[in-house]
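Quick log. Single chain, no ligands specified.
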Amino acid sequence: MNDATATVQRYLDIWNQHDAPTRAGSIQQLWADDARYADPLMNARGHSAIDAMIGAVRAHYPGHRFVPHGAVDVHGDNLRFSWRLVDATGSLVAQGTDFAVLDAEQRFSAVTGFLDPVTDTATGAGA
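-> predicted structure:
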């Protein structure tokens, strides 16, 4: 596993963390102090806001988990990666692609997420 892939896995682990104190500590380690997150549904800036946002997602999707999908692309201090949200049976619930900027300490300074259409892999039809 290369450094970028490991960094993205740590990022997804935070989204999967249900224990609030553990999640908050991980956010402090992996995210810059003034980091921001934005996607079509949510926006947050700073550790406590990012933690609250992820906590709300965890509460809305109990038993679900985020898994990586495909390879991580790296260009300088920029990452592009895709993920899937699956339920306890492994069924696809949502998927997306995130673009991230890392700071000089290799911490997330900005993440912009895009939600991708969910398709039925058997038929190719949208969900």
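The domain at 3-116 is CATH 3.10.450.50 (Nuclear Transport Factor 2; Chain: A,).
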